[in-house]
Structures are given as structure tokens and as C-alpha cells.
């Protein structure tokens, strides 16, 4: 049996958001083994990180949307993942982000990629709402969600997770 699916490519001024490739696995697995992934389900053993890599690919097949690999234009090296997430047990569809390396933070890359994904969610995907689930101590992601225009939604349903989180709701965007 063969499953066919197409992952769109999104482009911003400086970034390309593309589908996962087998060649991304090594970088992904190494990144998710690092302590900086504490707010993204990690750090993970190589075995669990590889499964997470594969689940990201499978998410596209099952849901028709998912996370993108983020690269700088003109490079094929993964900088992180940003996109759309709705695994089993999530109360709502999420826009999420994570950069793999600390040296890429503070340059606007996560904002640029997440902004494109919020537009894509409300435009091409036709979503009427989107949230971001954020650990209360993850000040960087809270700041990014607020910069994207999201506001804390204390009435939103929590996802099935053992990790406490805040829920930021993205305002609906009219896209062309």
C-alpha cells in the first residue's frame, strides 16, 4: 500500500518552510535530544526523537496539515520546525514553533515562520480558530505568541497532557 500526500512549501522574505525529508532526520534527532527542547516534549532519547520525526511526517498524511521544516533561503539545513499540529488528545488545532539552535533566536526567524503559518491556517487551511499551547515558564514563546497578536484564553480547553500549559488564541485573519 502506498500513501500519497503533498506538503506545500511556504516562503517568507528570508525563510523556506518545506516538508520533512529523510535527510533531515539526523539534525532533528540531535536537536530533540538537547535540553533546549524542554518545552517541546524533550529532551528525547534518539529512539523517541526518531519516532517524533516520523510522527511529524505521518501527521501530514492523517490530518492533511502539519509542521514544516524551516530553512534559511538558499540553505537546506533545518533551523527548526514551525506549523500546524493537532495530535490525538489535543483540544484544538495548534500553531507551534521551535528553533533547534540558540544562535538562531532573537533574529525574528520564529516570528517570520509562525506568522506565515498563522496566515496559512486561516487562509489555505480555512481554520476559524487557532491556539498555541505554551509552558507557563517559556517566556520566549509567550512573547512570540503576543507579538503574533495571540492573547491568553483562560476559558480554552486544555489538551490531554501532563505538562501544564497556557493557551494563547490567535485572532482570526482575513487572508487573500
From TrEMBL:
<protein>
    <submittedName>
        <fullName>RimJ/RimL family protein N-acetyltransferase</fullName>
    </submittedName>
</protein>
<dbReference type="InterPro" id="IPR051531">
    <property type="entry name" value="N-acetyltransferase"/>
</dbReference>
<feature type="domain" description="N-acetyltransferase">
    <location>
        <begin position="15"/>
        <end position="173"/>
    </location>
</feature>
<dbReference type="InterPro" id="IPR000182">
    <property type="entry name" value="GNAT_dom"/>
</dbReference>
<dbReference type="Pfam" id="PF13302">
    <property type="entry name" value="Acetyltransf_3"/>
</dbReference>
<keyword id="KW-0808">Transferase</keyword>
<dbReference type="GO" id="GO:0016747">
    <property type="term" value="F:acyltransferase activity, transferring groups other than amino-acyl groups"/>
</dbReference>
<dbReference type="InterPro" id="IPR016181">
    <property type="entry name" value="Acyl_CoA_acyltransferase"/>
</dbReference>
